[in-house]
Recover the amino acids of this structure.
């Protein structure tokens, strides 16, 4: 069986790698990149077959940079999944909790463990570019006064020891990931199935009631929006792009009618993907 | 005349200080804080009389953390202003452009000068906590191979020399700031005037068409929405708070009717402020 070479952002052991596993299982081989734009470029230029990107977190909100890239690159969303984010305090083997003076991790992860830092005022938060990368670094640099916050996979990849499990403030901490393919290689009609989502982006004329009329295209056909997100429109201060997800398949009749209706109202409209709804 | 003691986030010379000048002129004395939550706390506990916070940038989008704080603290928006963001490359006097190997600044500022870094591949971007703070640091540490990206005010405050003016990729780069006061000290009815905005936040029941019905409260009364923003609702994965701005005064009849209508539909509604529209 040919493996699906799949790009993600972060070091091996990042939460994105867990998303790859949930989405593709052992059909995937992974290709880590440092930045999100490198992930999108690798997919576009056929360095990889697929890409997995985070799009929103239930605590931190949307990953806005990736909304911008979805518009910039000719890719399609073909699946979504939700990963529960469990943050562990990881140090080198032999390092004890009372030795820890500094904790390295991605700023979002540090901010999701504030109760831990309040209870341990002698420990300093140090922002680092990646969760798993911070485990790799403390292992590589042989730091004996430091720990990292990352996934348990990261601990096992870099031979770290978990000192405290699940130190996140809020356990209802999930990240939603998209699986992306090159647009030209995705058939427009998905297989059957009951629970589908469609993601799209549009702009409206800047007139009173424009957004109301745009989303009426869905409401009048009982299509449920699960997400609406605005992003600034580059070059037009105080105008916005709207990213919308609705429950339904792009090719069913009422969805087709809604999209045609929205096309009458929108200056610009693009469907970003139609995919089975994640758990 | 009693001065208005005004908190902002960042070092002296931050763009927020320019916003304070635009909003209050020489009626203000400034109180800089490192973090946004410290700014909100200083206003709440009466350490200061007012606070100025950035809420959105025409390129980077909303400052989501501040949307969260607006809900958390009992404050009111009493004015808004837009500041054009001009990024300058600033070094110590005597340091020449060809000496520069590293450029420090806030990550958002670094990302708004990507053309400059593409044209100068030998120069490394180094993320720092603040734009003006990066000028202060290269001056304090006497760095001779480094520059900072910040405002011209920051250059003059810390005795920096501007090597390149206006290196931002896109000149249509504006940040919108709010002036905040403690809610209890703000009269609910503003003075007269034609052009007002009202900001509010609400949640809807998670049912089909709920957002559509919510914004119909405005559309049916020809009240123009200028902004809609969603933020995750803490503790309820995949449910959202909506932040809305509309053109109009909270106390005019059709706005009162719209707010009453929205109250019927929303689980939660709070008006964050009513203020004269910025330039």
């Amino acid at each position: 069986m040919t493996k699906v070479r799949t790009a993600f952002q972060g070091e091996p052991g990042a939460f994105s790698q867990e998303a790859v596993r949930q989405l593709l299982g052992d059909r995937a081989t992974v290709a880590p990149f440092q930045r999100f734009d490198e992930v999108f470029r690798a997919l576009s230029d056929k360095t990889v077959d697929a890409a997995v990107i985070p799009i929103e977190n239930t605590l931190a909100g949307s990953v806005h940079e990736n909304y911008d890239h979805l518009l910039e690159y000719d890719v399609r969303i073909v699946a979504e999944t939700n990963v529960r984010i469990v943050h562990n305090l990881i140090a080198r083997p032999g390092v004890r909790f009372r030795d820890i003076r500094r904790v390295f991790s991605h700023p979002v992860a540090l901010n999701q463990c504030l109760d831990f830092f309040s209870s341990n005022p002698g420990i300093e938060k140090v922002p680092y570019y990646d969760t798993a990368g911070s485990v790799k670094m403390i292992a590589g640099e042989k730091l004996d006064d430091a720990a990292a916050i990352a996934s348990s996979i990261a601990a096992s990849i870099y031979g770290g020891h978990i000192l405290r499990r699940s130190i996140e403030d809020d356990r209802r901490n999930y990240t939603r990931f998209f699986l992306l393919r090159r647009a030209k290689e995705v058939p427009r009609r998905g297989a059957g199935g009951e629970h589908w989502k469609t993601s799209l982006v549009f702009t409206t004329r800047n007139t009173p009631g424009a957004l109301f009329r745009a989303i009426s295209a869905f409401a009048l056909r009982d299509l449920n929006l699960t997400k609406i997100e605005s992003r600034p429109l580059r070059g037009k201060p105080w105008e916005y792009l709207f990213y919308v997800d609705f429950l339904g398949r792009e090719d069913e009749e009422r969805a087709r009618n809604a999209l045609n209706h929205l096309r009458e109202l929108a200056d610009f409209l693009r469907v970003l993907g139609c995919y089975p709804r994640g758990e």
Observations:
- The first strand of chain B starts at residue 4 and ends at 9.
- Chain B has a mean pLDDT of 91.
- Residues 92 and 272 of chain B are 43 Å apart (CA to CA).
- Chain B touches chain A at residues 56-61, 64, 170, 172, 174, 207-209, 211-213, 215-216, 218-219, 222-232, 234-238, 240 (CB under 8 Å).
